[in-house]
Each structure stands twice: as structure tokens, then as C-alpha cells.
Design a protein that fits this description.
Structural class: mainly alpha
Number of helices: 4
Mean pLDDT: 84
InterPro entries: YjiS-like (IPR009506)
Shape: elongated
Order of helices and strands: HHHH
Low-confidence stretches: none
Helix content: over 70%
Distance between the termini: 68 Å
Number of strands: 0
Radius of gyration: 22 Å
Oligomer: single chain
């Protein structure tokens, strides 16, 4: 005897819901990464003095944009700016 009885017909619906959540999560991550890649491309069009104000250099932007397509370039730029603020990079 079990304390909680789970109907058998609920299991397929739960797995379908979980698969839908996974697909939706993956699709939203791809869309977000592509939007961030577009924003990083706009950063590459900015003059050097504005990039310096943001704490990044032009080669940081270039490296971020030449990373794999599934990596978020804005994350890489944020990490480069943080390292520069802490004085770990020149």
C-alpha cells in the first residue's frame, strides 16, 4: 500500500510538459545570445574613447565576437571589464 497514488496517465503528460519546458528554455537562451551578439556588434562600431569609458578595449570586443556562436559575447566583455577594474589586465 502506498501513501500517495499517482495515476498512470499523468506520467506521459508530465514528461511532455518537461520536454516542452526544456525546448522553450533552450530556444529562449539562443534568442537571448543572438540579441547579445547583436549588441556586441554595435559596441564594435563605437569609438575607442567610449569603449575605454566602459572599461573594455576594441580587441576585447573582437575576441568576444570571434568566440563560438553559442557563447554569449556580452558575458565575455563583462568579465574583461571586471578584470581590468581589478587591475588584473592592462
Amino acid at each position: 500500500m502506498t501513501i500517495i497514488h499517482k495515476p498512470l496517465w499523468d506520467a506521459p503528460a508530465a514528461s511532455i510538459r518537461q520536454a516542452g519546458k526544456t525546448v522553450f528554455g533552450a530556444a529562449s537562451a539562443i534568442v537571448r545570445t543572438m540579441g547579445n551578439r547583436r549588441a556586441a556588434r554595435r559596441l564594435s562600431e563605437m569609438p575607442d574613447y567610449l569603449l575605454t569609458d566602459l572599461g573594455i578595449r576594441r580587441d576585447d570586443v573582437s575576441e568576444a565576437l570571434h568566440a563560438d556562436w553559442h557563447q554569449d559575447p556580452t558575458y565575455r566583455l563583462a568579465m574583461a571589464a571586471a578584470r581590468r577594474r581589478r587591475g588584473l589586465a592592462d
